[in-house]
Specification:
The protein is mainly α. The protein folds into 3 domains: 206 residues, MFS general substrate transporter like domains (Growth Hormone, Chain: A, Up-down Bundle); 56 residues; 248 residues, Growth Hormone, Chain: A. Helices cover 73% and strands 0% of the residues. The protein is built from 20 helices and no strands. Helix 3 packs parallel to helix 6, helix 8 packs across helix 16 and helix 15 packs antiparallel against helix 16. The N terminus and C terminus are likely disordered.
Length: 520
């Protein structure tokens, strides 16, 4: 639909603002659902009469479906039109969310979560493509600041909001909360004609073999990463089989893609150096953001002992730091190179993780809040320049494919990050516990000191039980510290790749005319 059919009375600036709002509501809706349901699982388990293995499929079904359906978003949008697919996915995601809230048993819940993942996969890449098209090149930093708030704030605020809704009302509301967001998005795009339709390429051929191979590869990998911790990783035949199937799927996908004339994936994307660098750092951000979130919540609740609501409030301080950074970074990019901001953001994040390696069960609220804000600020400094740089020199016709690829990279990296840190936490706790336990015996001089012997008498059941609790707690603290150190070293190792990023100022100078935008 061309802009000529839009309401004549609506100013171009107002139309662009309304498109921005619609894109943001869709982004927030999907981003919240990546983490908001996690805290409600124990409550769902009782209501739906599900076992621990069954209730985990509430998360697994969504993750796998979203990962598989992210890859073909670019082709679907180019074939049928971006606006039509955006409306369909927003409406489908909203309906699936309501159905999740109304589910009566675990089978219905898993089915509806599967539908949520299918429809929700397109929302983030399509909203980013809409934002990039709606703003000229010199305004992209501002656009990505606005869009990034939804993408980053959703996962950070999701656990806090989910805990509050579950404790105050019921677990059903973690799904019903999507209804107003979805309703406004569909209404804005469908009724008020805020967004123009893109050109449809009816001659596009779908590479079914390539898609099937990639779907099998990604789906098997996500299943292995999501269920590995529960089943014991390579000790489980299921996990081994899933890794083998994933490797075979990737082999057939690349072998087919490099030998066919029209592959499923647009490999022209990877000829752009800035986009390739963007993919690398988007994977880094996905891994770091979600792995630190997976560590922070259990640390605050299990080690320090905060209730879930208090832990959620403390974690929300990281969102405050991200929000402030994203408000500032759009303006900073006018004067500072994007690569400089990315390095600074990664440095701040690594610095916060360095100090978090020293956390104990006695760590106070001021230190937790301060480091969380610094870490969130670092995330904000990285995400906006990264989202801008990735599309700085990418041709317009590859933009939707590019946004879906970035989203896929972030999702897969986040699953890998969570799996690695949780596996390291479990194994590290067990290993450190065994080492510390060797020194807890009556022959240890420290155990014979009057103050210690009076509190922990190894000759009594109560004393041995207390010693076991204390050793277990210290083992957890050390394992968490090792995890934070691991993530910190990963960030530091990724910083040198920033030299691959081109100059944003040079790109702006070369832009002799305003970049094409759907909305002028």
């Amino acid at each position: 639909m061309s802009s000529a059919t839009a309401p004549a009375t609506m100013a171009p600036g107002l139309r662009r603002n309304m498109v921005t709002i619609c894109a943001m509501t869709a982004t927030i809706m999907q981003a919240l659902d990546t983490t908001i349901a996690n805290v409600a699982l124990p409550y769902m388990r009782g209501t739906l009469s599900a076992s621990q293995d069954q209730i985990n499929w509430v998360l697994t079904s969504y993750i796998v479906a979203a990962a598989i359906m992210t890859a073909p978003v670019g082709w679907i949008a180019n074939r049928f039109g971006r606006k039509r697919i955006f409306i369909l996915c927003s409406g489908g995601f909203t309906i699936a969310s309501v159905l999740c809230g109304l589910a009566q048993d675990i089978d219905q819940m898993v089915l509806f979560r599967l539908l949520q993942g299918v429809f929700g996969a397109a929302l983030v890449p399509l909203s980013q493509a809409v934002m990039l098209d709606s703003y000229a090149l010199h305004e992209r930093a501002k656009a990505m600041s606005i869009w990034g708030m939804g993408v980053m704030m959703g996962p950070i605020m999701g656990p806090s909001l989910g805990a509050w809704l579950t404790e105050t009302y019921s677990w059903h509301w973690v799904f019903f909360v999507n209804l107003p967001f979805g309703f406004f998005t569909v209404l804005g795009l469908m009724v008020f004609i805020f967004m123009d339709e893109t050109r449809k390429d009816l001659n596009l051929r779908f590479d079914w073999f390539g898609f099937a191979a990639l779907a099998v590869a990604i789906g098997s990998l996500q299943l292995a990463l999501d269920r590995g911790e529960q089943l014991g990783w390579l000790e489980s035949n299921e996990i081994v089989a899933e890794f083998i199937v994933s490797a075979v799927g990737f082999y057939y996908f690349f072998a087919h893609s490099f030998t066919t004339s029209k592959p499923f994936m647009q490999f022209a994307l990877f000829k752009d150096r800035n986009f390739v660098t963007g993919c690398i750092f988007m994977a880094v951000m996905g891994l770091v953001l979600y792995s630190t979130m997976a560590l922070a919540s259990p640390y605050l609740q299990n080690v320090i002992g905060y209730p879930i609501i208090t832990a959620g409030v403390l974690l929300a301080s990281r969102g405050c730091g991200t929000f402030v950074a994203m408000m500032l970074v759009g303006r900073l990019m006018r004067y500072i190179e994007a690569r400089t901001l990315i390095v600074a953001g990664l440095g701040l994040t690594a610095l916060s993780l360095f100090y978090m390696t020293g956390w104990t069960d006695q760590t106070g609220v001021p230190e937790i809040v301060t480091l969380s804000i610094i870490q969130g600020f670092g995330f904000g400094l990285v995400f906006v320049p990264l989202s801008t740089v990735a599309f700085l020199t990418l041709p317009n016709h590859l933009r939707t494919d590019g946004t879906s690829m970035l989203t896929l990279m972030r999702n897969v990296a986040s699953s890998i990050g969570i799996s690695v840190v949780i596996a390291q936490l479990t194994e590290g706790s067990r290993r450190v516990y065994a080492i510390l336990s060797e020194h807890i015996n009556p022959f240890n001089h420290a155990m014979q000191m009057p103050d210690v012997a009076g509190m922990i008498n190894m000759n009594t059941d109560q004393g041995r039980a207390m010693a076991d609790v204390m050793v277990g707690l210290q083992a957890q603290i050390i394992a968490f510290s090792q995890d934070y150190q691991l993530v910190m070293l990963f960030i530091l190792a990724s910083i040198p790749f920033a030299i691959m990023i081109g100059s944003t100022k040079a790109a702006l100078r070369k832009q002799t005319a305003p970049d094409h935008a759907v909305l002028e």
